[in-house]
Amino acid sequence: MYTGETFFEAKTVADSNDVTEHPHDDKPKPHVCTVCDKRFIKKQSLKEHTEKHIGEKLKLYSCTECEKRFTTQKYLHQHMNVHTSKYRCSECGKSFQNNRLLTIHSRIHSGEKQFECSDCGRRFTQDGSLVMHRRIHSGEKPYNCHVCGKAFSRSDHLYNHMSVHTRDKPYKCQMCDKTFSQSGHLHKHMKVHTGDKPYKCSLCDKSFKRSSNLCSHKQHVHSYRKPYQCPYCGMQFKTNGYQKRHVRIHTGVKPYSCRLCSDRFTRPDQLKTHLLKSHNEGTWLTCSICQKKFCQSGGLKTHLHRHKDMKPFVCNDCPKRFCTSTELKVHQLIHLDMKQFCCSLCGKDFSRRYTVKKHFQKCSAKLGFDNV
Known about the structure:
The protein is an alpha+beta fold. Helix content is 39%, strand content 13%. The strands form 12 sheets. A 3-stranded antiparallel β-sheet has the order 1-2-3. Strand 18 and strand 19 form a beta hairpin.
């Protein structure tokens, strides 16, 4: 078996007091990967790990079911359990390589999250996720790319980043010839062609391709809980990502820069739209019914829903249905009796933005502010 020592020099460190990625394991891990600094008890484990960094060319063992490739026969045998459904979730039907992964996954359905962050109180189903989450608070990014020096908080993010330098995309879609650097990306892409959406929301009739998308949908659309608060204005948000994006309004930070000009943006979708409109870089998405063009796939999807009169978002409190989650959120304010918009002239509160705009015009005319 090729060990990868030509590409990566194995390193042994005698200091057993070094902090590892598994703080609860007190066994010394002297064998260190020189690429991502992950530690191992056995040298053989390090050798098998380094093969992951080498690339897909050394993955000699192919799955006959999905053509996914592996570096060792052991990994292939574990993967085959997914196809045989040996470890299958009774709740959603998803299959896993081993019983440990199935047990961890089952916590999604049971709601069990026994690992709690001491900084923000967020809870997790496994300790590894908590370790990675804590890096958000500490700003720690222990994994560095040996080509460009960019740092990452997680080793899998570094591994995915390496494809930027290699440009190697060995996985090709047989339906549209699109290529991917990882087999997992191809597997997710194939659902675009098959239309497979096995994860159905129990609160509405919307279905999803991945369980993570279903969890995100329930949190964004059906949950009223907003645990994340802006430190500048106190505004609350459902997700940490929304809160971070909002804070940029106060700080003025624009982390996404155009490599073709000096323009900068607060969100990646804004940069993508800019590249398409200003530099003609990218692909316009065209409606097959009316030929209207869109920059983002989400915009085209919503547009097609309106053509077909599809309204997948259902209100929990009444029979009304809506085309987008945003329309549903605005409607749900009626049931919550939340009036977050206020007329600056008379102080009257309203639950909808467009209602307060109409009122403001009438109120300004009534009070003699016709030029407002």
